[in-house]
Write a structure and sequence with these properties.
The protein is of the alpha/beta class. It is built from 9 helices and 8 strands. It has a single domain, classed as Alpha-Beta Barrel (TIM Barrel).
Length: 258
């Protein structure tokens, strides 16, 4: 398996960071992306990736943090982005649930990330919360030749949104929320995603999947519960879904198969 989105440098995981890598390996997780939310975590994610073969990094400014970001922060992100172990640009996107950053400012930062993604040919990692129309408008305005290289991270939107992103060439990633008992609609959407565009993630330490929801911080080893849930709702063998989503992760992140 490949965990495409984990906040491995989050303070909630500090005490178990080394142990969680071992547990991930035991669970069959062969690769994971440590995802950044600001300039400092971008550097920390890359440093972790340099220390561990199975860890890769993203760099970027989260929409809820962009009101704090400076030109120097963006210069630092751009500098780090060219490193070979940096495989993604973000976490970027838009968020209308929290009001920490004005939506106009979030859009400006999203545009910067999209331009950097095209410049380096590295995929965007897109955060979307209560803003499906805004995200689609931004992606469609910024697409080139009808394409956006990127991942809709922890997808919880409508099928129409997923379909538009698929038409743009994007991948759809599901996290622990798809395992929740009240997420039947999300599972129905997950069952419709083409197999070659499907990804799995934990969003560690958040969105701990059933049956551990509410009991402990999420970690990469728990991506297996999301894989099992998706395999069930899609009517596929778990091993085949694990193989396909790993292949997809390596495809989007330009990595050799493990």
């Amino acid at each position: 398996m490949f965990d495409t989105h984990a906040h491995l440098t989050d303070p909630q995981l500090a005490a178990i960071r080394e142990d969680l890598l071992g547990r991930a390996a035991e669970a069959g997780v062969r690769g994971m992306v440590a995802v950044a939310t600001d300039a400092a975590s971008s550097l920390a994610c890359l440093q972790m990736a340099e220390q561990h073969e199975q860890v890769f990094a993203s760099v970027g400014i989260h929409p809820n943090d962009c009101h704090l970001a400076t030109k120097d922060d963006w210069d630092a992100v751009r500098h780090l982005a060219g490193h070979p172990k940096v495989v993604g640009i973000g976490e970027t996107g838009l968020d209308r649930y929290w009001d920490t950053s004005p939506i106009e400012l979030q859009n400006q930062w999203l545009d910067r990330h999209i331009s950097l993604s095209f410049e380096l040919n590295k995929p965007l990692i897109i955060h979307m919360r209560d803003c499906e129309e805004d995200i689609l408008q931004s992606l469609q305005q910024n697409q080139r030749a009808g394409q956006i290289l990127g991942i809709m991270h922890s997808f919880t939107g409508k099928w129409e949104t997923a379909k538009t992103c698929l038409d743009l060439g994007m991948y759809i990633s599901f996290a622990g929320m798809v395992t929740f008992k009240n997420a039947a609609n999300l599972r129905e959407i997950a069952a419709r995603i083409p197999s070659d565009r499907l990804l799995i993630e934990t969003d560690s330490p958040y969105l701990t999947p059933h049956p551990h929801r509410g009991k402990r911080p999420n970690e990469p080893a728990m991506v297996k519960f999301t894989a099992e849930c998706l395999a069930e709702c899609r009517g596929e063998p778990v091993a085949e879904l694990q193989r396909q989503t790993t292949e997809n992760a390596c495809q989007v992140f330009r990595l050799p198969l493990p």
